[in-house]
Amino acid sequence: MRKSLQIAGAYVGIIVGAGFASGQEILQFFTSFGLLGIIGGVIATFFFAFLGMQLTQLGSKLQTDSHKAVIYHICGRYLGVVVDIIITFFLFGVTVVMMAGSGSIFEQQFGLPAMVGNVVMAVLTILTVCLNVQKLLSVISWITPYLMVLVLIITGYSLLTMDQSFTALEAVAKKQPAAASNWLLGGLLYVSYNIAAGAAMLAVMGGTTKDAKVAGRGGILGGLGLGLLILLINIGMFAKLDTLQGVDMPTLLLANQLHPVLGALMSIALLGMIYNTAVGMLYAFAARIVKPGNSKFKPAVVGFGILAFASSFIGFIKLVGTVYPVMGYLGFTIMAAIIVSWARSRKEKEEKQEGEIAV
Question: Domain of life, per the record (predicted)?
Answer without folding.
Answer: Bacteria
